From TrEMBL, chain B:
GO terms for molecular function: protein phosphatase regulator activity. GO terms for cellular component: protein phosphatase type 2A complex. This is Serine/threonine-protein phosphatase 2A 55 kDa regulatory subunit B. PROSITE patterns: PR55_1, PR55_2. The keyword Repeat applies. PP2A consists of a common heterodimeric core enzyme, composed of a 36 kDa catalytic subunit (subunit C) and a 65 kDa constant regulatory subunit (PR65 or subunit A), that associates with a variety of regulatory subunits. Belongs to the phosphatase 2A regulatory subunit B family. It comes from Xiphophorus maculatus (Southern platyfish).
Length: 292, 450
């Protein structure tokens, strides 16, 4: 290496179209060019919950992202060091914190849906595998998946959902008045999400894949009631019963697995998913028509 | 580490773009590839454009100074499309360019976006016929009564014109996003790989292709692994390799079966259980795989390392190089800002003795396999004056002992990533794509490959 590439003549060629900007305005571009400090259901909420877990005041500063990151980094670095040192002690607070963060980030990324842009299959698969890994670990740990009690993790996630719901619409705040404890039965009493994804594997070429099993996982943690409160005013119409409000995540999961057979999903039995899909498509088509 | 030698060539400036300028997304370079002689260098960008650079011939007055690369041709290869059935946009971004070996005066290259591969012919025209009987110089039809004699049109020299034309369009064969194309050593076929399938094409036939690998499970819910890169063996036209998101490499022999779902060899390094974390799988995902020129080795890149594998040893890599191990403790943040999903490419030098790959902060790394020495260099305007020595850079751990000019891990700019690099097939010339800028570096001291 002493001799190569010491003396270099350079050509620096800016790849440029000479003034005519063809900006695509993709969210993906933003993601590439800056760190994502997006506001979404889980991201910020989780961080604030972390700080309250740690006993300090929850930081409400919206621009505290940088400082939060630094704190997070410090916490995570510590926890990762601990992890490396002692794999057996999985009840490490640091490890649990990291797991919680990764879980919430995973879900947030999986839910990020951008109309008109196909998600990367590789990324989706990697995210879902991470989710599965966390799920397995939580199940093998035993404590976190007890459906009778409210696990700390479950409460964390649920509370985060609630926290963000309150800014959506006044009508949804009624849900906050409900009892915060989830139904104690092992089987989720509100089976809307799980029921919905059962007929779907029958649909040719279409799966919810792990968004569905992620939903199943979440409902195992008895978090179903949170979905009732999610704002679905975008999809609401007089024909849709309120129970379908839970399906606001469904259009997201559709885009994971590109439909192989180019058949639009119109399953029978009035599946919630297909109706919301249709509405989504309708919106999209309307956008295109309006723009053209 | 060395001396500056006298270089008297002028820098090829195309105008400076200050680093703080808004980067037009369409100008972001997405692939870089030298042709087989190194005379031409092609880049593709996110806007679907291909720019070809040509190396100026050696100047006779200065026999030891090689030529610079100048723009030879620019054309729009792919346009954005809209898939109406799925209501999804198909990006025009050029994912890969591969040159065909030159067989006549024209040059051919394959360029691909997510769904469609195109074969382009690049040819020169430096003569044109003059002296038509029925048309005048501007092409207007002559009045027949003025034609009194017959003349034979002659070819007269003209200003060089580079013409690019699409010769083939290979479309509608991929449901998923194409990540790789590779020309076979038989120069008749090539393969295209997407997330779940690999297709074999004949260069002359566009209406059909053969599916040679299909890892799509019957139930998509069972999907846990995707294809990330694929390449033909440089010498054996029946062998190819593909890598997966789980960090495995599969060598397949097309003679064994029509559908190469069963691999001939599986290269996988057993996981170190003590190093397992939530990100283990993501960072093990292979982002690029390249055969050595000799065909004896494979070079792979995953998020933190570059590995050299011997084709005869499947159990573990021959060599492992840490590209930026200082990121290992930052994986959670990199996961959060999606950087952990970045796909870095890697490259061999012509003699397979040095490997190169990119990193963040516009750094790129080179590892000498023989001397085991490595270097970190930076591709940036500030640190690269014309004809200057590229200073080796160093990244130090946060809070650690810092030498002058070292950069701390926390100061790294993760938006400046060098994903695409290429090495001249014969000489020590490298092309580095840094966002929308192309850097071409040459070793003046030692142009010949060692």
């Amino acid at each position: 290496m002493d001799r190569t590439f010491l003396t270099l003549r350079i050509s620096v060629v800016p790849n440029s179209r000479g003034g005519t900007k063809r900006s695509r305005g993709h969210d993906g571009f933003v993601r590439h060019m800056k760190s994502v400090k997006g506001t979404s259901m889980l991201g910020r909420g989780v961080k604030r919950k972390w700080s309250s877990l740690e006993g300090s005041e929850a930081e409400q500063l919206p621009d505290a992202a940088a400082t939060e990151d630094k704190r997070l980094d410090a916490a995570l670095e510590d926890s990762e060091e601990e992890d490396r040192g002692d794999r057996r002690s999985r009840t490490d607070a640091g490890h649990l914190q990291q797991r919680q963060l990764v879980l919430s980030l995973c879900l947030k990324k999986l839910q990020h849906y951008q109309a008109g842009v196909e998600l990367s299959l590789r990324r989706s698969v990697l995210l879902i595998n991470t989710l599965r890994q966390i799920q397995e670990e939580m199940q093998s740990d035993g404590t976190d998946v007890q459906l009778g009690g409210v696990s700390r993790d479950a409460r964390l996630l649920r509370d985060d959902f609630r926290e963000d719901e309150s800014v959506t619409c006044p009508g949804c705040t009624e849900g906050d008045a409900e009892s915060p404890s989830p139904p104690p039965s092992p089987e989720p009493t509100n089976t809307t999400p799980t029921d919905l994804h059962k007929p779907l594997p029958n649909v040719v070429g279409h799966t919810f894949s792990d968004a569905g099993s992620a939903m199943g996982y979440l409902s195992d943690l008895a978090l179903d009631d949170i979905f009732e409160d999610i704002d679905t005013s975008m999809y609401e119409s007089s024909e849709l019963p309120s129970a379908w409000a839970a399906g606001s995540l469904w259009p997201v999961s559709v885009s994971f697995w590109p439909n192989d057979d180019d058949v639009k999903l119109c399953s029978s039995a009035g599946s919630l998913q297909s109706c919301l899909l249709d509405l989504n498509e309708l919106d999209h088509i309307m956008e295109i028509l309006v723009k053209s | 580490m060395g001396e500056d030698t006298d270089a008297t060539l002028t820098l090829n400036h195309h105008g400076f773009l200050p680093d703080h300028n808004y980067v037009t997304e369409a100008d972001i370079i997405s692939t870089v590839e030298f042709n087989h002689t190194g005379e031409l260098l092609a880049t593709g960008d996110k806007g679907g454009r291909v720019v070809i650079f040509q190396r100026e011939p050696e100047s006779k007055s200065e026999p030891f100074s090689q030529g610079e690369y100048n723009v030879y041709s620019t054309f729009q290869s792919h346009e954005p499309e809209f898939d109406y059935l799925k209501s999804l946009e198909i990006e025009e971004k050029i994912n890969k360019i591969r040159w065909l070996p030159q067989q006549n005066a024209a040059h051919f290259l394959l360029s691909t976006n997510d769904k469609t591969i195109k074969l382009w012919k690049v040819s020169e025209r430096d003569k044109r016929p003059e002296g038509y009987n029925l048309k005048d110089e501007e092409g207007r039809i002559k009045d027949i009564s003025t034609v009194t004699s017959l003349q034979v049109p002659v070819l007269k020299p003209m200003d060089l014109m580079v013409e690019v034309s699409p010769r083939r369009v290979f479309a509608n064969a991929h449901t998923y996003h194409i990540n790789s194309i590779s020309v076979n050593s038989d120069y008749e076929t090539y393969m295209s790989a997407d997330d779940l399938r690999i297709n074999l094409w004949h260069l002359d036939i566009t209406d059909r292709s053969f599916n040679i690998v299909d890892i799509k499970p019957a139930n998509m819910e069972d999907l846990t692994e995707v294809i990330t890169a694929a390449e033909f063996h440089p010498l054996h036209c029946n062998l190819f390799v593909y890598s997966s998101s789980k960090g495995t490499l599969r060598l397949c022999d097309m003679r064994e079966a029509a559908l190469c779902d069963k691999h001939s060899k599986l290269f996988e390094e057993p996981e170190d259980p003590s190093a397992r974390s939530f990100f283990s799988e993501i960072i093990s995902s292979v982002s690029d795989v390249k055969f050595s020129h000799s065909g004896r080795y494979l070079l792979t890149r995953d998020y933190l390392t570059a590995k050299v594998w011997d084709l005869n040893m499947e159990s573990k890599p021959l060599e492992t190089y840490q590209v930026h191990d200082y990121l290992r403790s930052k994986l959670c943040s990199l996961y959060e800002n999606d950087c952990i999903f970045d796909k870095f490419e890697c490259a061999w030098n012509g003699s397979d003795s040095v490997i190169m790959t990119g990193a963040y902060n516009n750094f790129f790394r080179m590892f000498d396999r023989n001397t085991k020495r490595d270097v970190t260099l930076e591709a940036s305007r500030e640190s690269s004056k014309p004809r200057a020595v590229l200073k080796p850079r160093r990244v130090c751990a946060a809070g650690g002992k810092r030498r002058k000019d070292d950069i701390s891990v926390d100061s790294l700019d993760f938006t400046k990533k060098i994903l695409h690099t290429a090495w001249h097939p014969n000489e020590n010339i490298i092309a580095i794509a840094a966002t929308n800028n192309l850097y071409i570096f040459q070793d003046k001291l030692n142009s010949e490959m060692h």
